[in-house]
DNA sequence: GAGTGGTCTAGACCACACA
DNA sequence: GTGTGGTCTAGACCACTCT
């Protein structure tokens, strides 16, 4: 508590395997987290820092860049670098690969193909995929489960332009982007998703083995190519009693988001 | 289609107001999106690029850094820089400030304080906030609405160490992190949230004006200070018929996530 | 050993903010 | 004007990969 009252210069180990810019960023991070630099307050200028620690200005900039990426400081041209306010009210819910997540929890993920066929686009699908009515599309119905119980019921459609046969091996990665890559002409480069809270329909209760009106997450996904044309569309229904999304926002350099 | 077979060098405008590193990054982005550089393929080495375009290697590195941040390429020490595979299966659902979102949609957000009082921590709350039983805590009940209808019902608790009076002005920003900052000793620096799909309880149907068993999103939030001690806990119940989360993942330099 | 990306330097010029 | 951050250069040394 009584140390450092003389704004003593923290030491940088220039021979360390740890980069100088990282050591410097950590020094400022510590000062910010300890409240010795408070939100709105200015950091020393880049020239001051580079003289004080006897390092190049470019190295100072790299350190500040790390802090900027972490959202801890922001820069203003011609004015200076300032400590940011924590933005803990922002939320980011991440959803990662189903198989990995299940395996991480010590269970065995399974993918069951309930059906796959070529269908002609009806009005809804034609609109979702921006194709003419009755265009040939591939339709997949999948059930993702652990060894114990079903978890996700998926319906996916992709534009079917290559007329390639449907391979068993597709089930190794039945993600919409993989299916679209295999059977479409173009590369998917953008994915839009919408997450709804809903209750299970009759069909979903049967497939998922839950009661009518049980809560579920519904994730609708649309894939686009580089020209912004839809190349795939799908709907995943996740059991509400087995799924939750977690979000960690941390005001520090490590762990931008976790789990 | 027939152009550029002579690997003609794209021009960089060195006198432009647009930074060279950005122009260069855009050139590679275009080549990748057009499929002239495919996933797994190597970019020219940094030295080659710097000679080819007659710019410094540090500028080349800055350009590649932009592409790396966008997830379009990855680097391997001693080997080279390679085009990444699009990871469109990752999902990021963002939830932004309630008031801004409502206003953006052309409605007027309202916050109604249903109640605020000092309570003694029961078993559940003592566990959530990691304090002894019966510790004094502040308890807020809030209703967020448009002019037309209620949307979110919130219950929030913060550790009450400062013994500061409760101010009307807190309602300008009744976020958990603001309440915790005002009434706690320490700075919140980390926020964890859990998103559940559920159905409305009896109390929630009354407050939100919906039917029993209507789907709702439940967002549970815990705030921590720099020492990882909980300083606030809250639960927000959002009408399922009025809320959806959207996610856009784009394999390009702009729009890392949108809306 | 040759080639690669990672780090770092000691300069330079610029546009911007502020007095 | 002075001071700030933003860009850029032309070198340098390192650890790493591959042959």
Automatic annotation (TrEMBL), chains A, B:
A molecular function GO annotation: DNA binding
Domain of life of the source: Bacteria
UniProt domain HTH gntR-type: residue ranges: 18-86
Single biological process term from Gene Ontology: negative regulation of DNA-templated transcription
Keyword S-adenosyl-L-methionine recorded: no
Pfam hit, one: UTRA
Residues spanning the membrane: none
Assigned keywords, A-Z: DNA-binding, Transcription, Transcription regulation
Xref: CDD domains: WHTH_GntR (cd07377)
Name of the protein this chain belongs to: GntR family transcriptional regulator
Organism: Selenihalanaerobacter shriftii
